[in-house]
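Form 7-S
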Amino acid sequence: MAIGTANPASWVTQEEYVDWYFRVTNSEHLADLKAKMKRICDKSGINKRHFHLTEELLADHPDFAGRAQPSLDARLDVAAAAVPELAAAAARKAIAEWGRPAGDITHLGSSATAPAPPSSAPTRLVPVERPIFYMASASQTTIPGTEHAITGQLRKGGLDYHIAHEMPSLVGEHIAHCVADALAPLGIGIDVDVDGGGGWNGLFWAVHPGGRAILDSVEARLALAPGKLAANRRVLGEFGNMAGATVFFVLDELRRARGEGERRGCEWGVAVAFGPGVTVETMVLRAVHF
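Output:
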């Protein structure tokens, strides 16, 4: 899509490099080594080199010139200031070439090759977080003896996928302990009373709507109040079962409902999805705004 690069503003031609290097490192007396280095540089095919370490900076840090000097802390301090600046410059170039607003970017990846790179560089470059939900805990449960309940095989005609008729009852039978296992590390029990509902109604719910009967089973088994699975049912009604992606549509529906002024809702909730095994994947989520 776009690539941006950036270099330090200071640079030295390769022709001048050897003299510059031996001067700033106070090594002019090493004539044989200098001559050897010049022969190497003459054959390198390099025209110039960019450096952040200017003569002024090196004068302020004479310990940088000696490899035996304990200068690592100071070097890392220099990198901590310089790396985010270069990253920002390169990012601005890439975004300009891309031609879209920086606000359209949703993720930031960072990689550095400097020794012990400053881990805070991405945060310093973009010091903002706009999460919707935090994942606080997760658990996985495999229901024994249910290998037949959800199966999928890729055949020459496409994906052959089957869901057994007992899936709703299986989900209903195991949903409570699956969610409880995910909540346990956080010390949250079913008596949670975040929004006044108490019990399982103290959570918001993003259940993979694999079918109406599955949602009905979860609602009945947990004695959920009417409307607790409204987002799940809306997604099922509008899109049907879209396999693994469906639960993200539910989360989006929950997010939109909060943004459109519906009741503040719960602080804590769960996202539950089902797959072959039968496996039940449960994530405990914490809403940023509730």
